[in-house]
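Long-time lurker, finally posting.

We've been working with Alpha/beta-hydrolase (Russula ochroleuca) and I want a structural starting point before designing mutants. I don't trust myself to interpret raw outputs, so I'm hoping someone here can both generate the structure tokens and explain anything notable. Sequence follows.
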Amino acid sequence: MNPMDPASFNHRTERLSTGRTYHFVDQRPVTYPDHKKPAAAARTILCVHGFPDIWYGWRYQIGPWVRAGYRVVVPDMLGYGGTDKPLAVEEYSTKKLCADLAALLDIIGVSRAIVIGHDWGSYIAGRFALWHPDRLLALALFSAPFTPPTKRYNSLEDIVKKVPNYAYQLYFARSESTKEIEANLERFLRLTYALEVPQINPMLDGNMRQVIVNPGVTRPSTSKRPLTNDELQYVASQLRNMNGPLSYYRTTKIRFEEEQAAKLPSHLPAGLPVLHIWGGKDLSATPGVVSRMREMIAGYEEIELPYKGHWIMAEAKEEVTGAVLRWLSKWEVKPVKVKSML
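Top reply, 14 upvotes:
Generated this for you. Predicted structure of Alpha/beta-hydrolase:
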């Protein structure tokens, strides 16, 4: 398991009961029980990446967690890498994505897992705890905090009015962003991973498109980079089709309607250990949202990493990896006895 060599990890591709085919890394410790023993006797960490990432975003955590005795399973999420890439936006609803994760646990013989998400993966991991609460041992969210379902529909435009730093999502939600980002993919990734610095704030309305299509408004970054040029090229090779990744931003109303129809609970399961880790310079972890999360979740723990940005799995790999192991050891990861919503 060499973080610099994607081929050194154990790759699998399986067709799930949901009908979708997923690519994932499945790394087992030497001491992991064989298939003749109960899967619940072992502990599995399921990692859910965000946008625009792939399984490789967890490259620095997989090895240490496996060496600590955990099985680590890291899929390319729907639309990414070697996983299916349906065209229809409705296929990317959180309900369906969570059904895929449950089916993935089924196919690897795991009843409950420690679920850890980053960015969009945090949102999906949080929703997985609501749609399938009986499948979690513990929940860790990196960067993006937990946001509960709402009783009133808030369009993406409504959300941006409350949180102006989310205005870039308006561009991602527009259909034209797909081809524009595909045509400028390497520049987009260099901006996203802070290898280049824009001279205007890309988070604000209208600016994201400018920095993607106009190379004259960026300059190389002089700060420590979260990935090398070789790593960037590997990620780019897995993201040639951007329709799927961008479709996540186009499901706001679909997600709301599904959650309303299912009467999805607004609180995480009682007794579920929850950890939130974020970088102090990460604009996606707004203080107001973090504060609400702190107030509404029992058993909640938080770790702020000062001077770190969005890509904490690389920027603060030792701190993040060790913090999760200490947190799991403290809680002993006891199963939560609740029924699934589905």
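Before you design anything, note these points.
The longest strand covers residues 21-27.
The chain has one domain: 6-331.
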